[in-house]
Every structure is written in C-alpha cells, then in structure tokens.
Write a structure and sequence with these properties.
Length: about 325
C-alpha cells in the first residue's frame, strides 16, 4: 500500500478544513496508508480548535503543527514537508479550490516515474487580480528560474520522497519551493485538473503579498538585479570612455570642433559613474552569493505539534532499528 502524505497549510480556514479532511479520509483512507499534516500558519479564527478536534478524531492519520506566528504559505508548506513520512507527498490548499477527487490522479501520474507532478487548470476560478498576478509570476519564473515555458507552477502538486528530502535540505529564511524543485530535478510532469471556486472567504494573496513573492523569487534565487546593474555600469563606462576619447582627439587635432565644457564634464562623469556601478556590481555579486549561502533566519518556528499516533510508532521503530544496527556494528568491530 502506498504511504501518501498530504500537506495542507491552514490560514483562517475554520469553515472548510474539517470538511476537507473528512472528504480526503473518506476518499483515500483505505486506498492508501494516508497521513494528513495540517500546518496552522497563525490563523486568526477558530482553525486551531478545529485542527485539534480533527487530530482527536483521526489520531492515526492527522498530524497537527501550530506555528508561532504567520510565516507565509511557502514557509508553512516547508514546515509540513519537514514532518511528513510518506513515500509520496501532495501539497494542496485549504479552501477546496484544489478538488480532493483529483489527488488520486496525481498519484497515478507520478507513478509513471516523475519526481514531481504539477497541476494546471483549463479554467481558473480566481479573481482577476490573482489571475493577473499568476501570469506575471509565470513569466518572471521563465526568466529568473529558467522554468520551461509550458510548465505552470501551481501550488497543487505531488512529490516523491527523494524530492521532499532534497527540498527540506534548504534552510534559508525565505523558501520558494518551486525554485528549489526546479534546481533539484528535471523529472517534472504536469496534469490538467479542475479548479473550483473558494467555498468561503477570500484569497490570502493580496497585491502586496504578490509583490513580496516576486521580490523573494528575484533576490533570493537569482543575482539578476546585480547583473543588470553591472551591465548598465559597463554601458556607462564604455560611453564615458568613448566621450573621453573624443576629448583627447579634439585636444590632439585642434582643427576639429571643440567639445563644450559641459560635454567634457559629462564624459568624465559618465565614465567614473559607470566604473563605480560596475565595481559595485562585482562586489555585490560576491555579497549576493554569500547571502544566498549563509542567511540563517528561521523558516518557521513550531509552537506545538500533535503527531499522528501511527507515525509516532513508526518513528520510534525506526530509531530502535537504527540503534540496534549501531550496536551490532559495534559488537562486530569489537
């Protein structure tokens, strides 16, 4: 039986999360060795109470992780991925826009040998602003992340254990999970699924959060801004050198029309400003690489975790097995 984990970041989902979990368990509770990891990203409604109730109702299936503050969706998903045990892992939203009935199709598709399978939607049921933001995000990912142009980076996806283990190796403070996936594997599948309207509430992605997401993609996973600055600086330096050569030629051939003092000053200024920008870009390139490697702010902070009982027993069994293996090796060496 396939060990299937489902990670659901929960934010103000008191009206949907219980029905979603009940539906998932009804559909897949006997078909798979099912595990659902709910990550409460500091909801302001009664989501905490309902998630606790779900853990009590399904103690063998549901793990509940409560974060100490709002860290954002990608950080919450990372917290979930760090607590899954299944050989396959689905990530889905808490609002029924990702239909539970499509999870089985994702499992069938990834069993063809992919490391990850993304979903794409023939028709999206989001607001105009959210759809526009998704399009901009898609185009930016093509440039910044070198994403294949035909691939849609949806939040509804499935990964195998290999890729989950690779993703959680990233410990930086601003994870962008799709960027980590794209730099970890090229074995990527895609499947068309239904996209439904939200059953309650509004999307948590405001325009400000979309801007923040784009900024995180550009700054944390690429050095493109520094390189653009370097190109501009180089162009200015070349322009300044050209104008400086013009001044020198005018000095050596006084018969030519003389440059004005303003033109001479602009030539000198352009050259040195361009050189400064180029130098800053080179230094920034090194600093940027250091930042990408060494930034150690926390991705998430778990205030409390209620682990599914069956998963606790599995973890204890693994620890005992590892300890026994170590003792056997020590006895053999002695």
């Amino acid at each position: 039986m396939i060990a299937l984990s489902i990670v659901i970041p929960v934010y103000n989902a008191a009206k949907t999360i219980e029905s979603l979990c009940n539906t998932l368990i009804d559909l897949y509770g006997t078909q798979y060795d099912l595990e659902i990891v709910l990550v409460n990203d500091y909801s302001r409604d009664s989501s905490d109470l309902i998630c606790r109730r779900l853990h009590d109702k399904y103690p063998d299936t549901i793990t509940y992780v409560k974060l100490s503050r709002n860290f954002s969706e990608h950080n919450a998903v990372m917290a979930g991925l760090n607590n899954v045990t299944g050989s396959l892992c689905v990530v889905m939203d808490d609002d029924f826009q990702n239909p539970p009935e499509e999870v089985g199709r994702l499992v069938e598709e990834i069993e063809k040998g992919y490391d990850v399978v993304y979903t794409e939607y023939p028709v999206k049921r989001d607001s105009l602003l959210r759809n526009m933001g998704s399009r901009v995000n898609d185009k930016m990912a093509n440039i910044v992340l070198h994403k294949p142009s035909g691939l849609y980076l949806s939040s509804f996806k499935i990964m195998n254990r290999f890729l989950v283990d690779e993703v959680i190796k990233y410990t930086g403070p601003d994870p962008y999970i799709d960027a980590i996936i794209l730099r970890s594997t090229a074995s990527i599948g895609s499947i068309k699924v239904r996209h439904d309207k939200r059953r309650h509430g509004r999307s948590g992605y405001t325009f400000g959060k979309l801007i923040s997401l784009w900024g995180n993609m550009i700054v944390s996973y690429s050095l493109i801004p520094l390189r653009i600055l370097g190109i501009v600086g180089l162009a200015l330096a070349i322009y300044g050198a050209f104008m400086g050569g013009h001044v020198l030629l005018d000095y050596l051939t006084p018969d030519e029309e003389e440059l004005t003092d303003y033109q001479t000053l602009m030539a000198i200024t352009a050259f040195f400003r361009g050189f400064q920008m180029l130098a800053i870009s080179v230094v920034g390139e090194y600093i940027g690489r250091i930042y990408l490697a060494l930034n150690r702010d926390p991705q998430f902070v778990i205030r409390e975790k209620l682990t599914a009982r069956r998963r606790q027993e599995t973890t204890i069994l693994k620890k005992v097995t590892i300890r026994n293996d170590k003792e056997k090796r020590a006895d053999t060496a002695a």
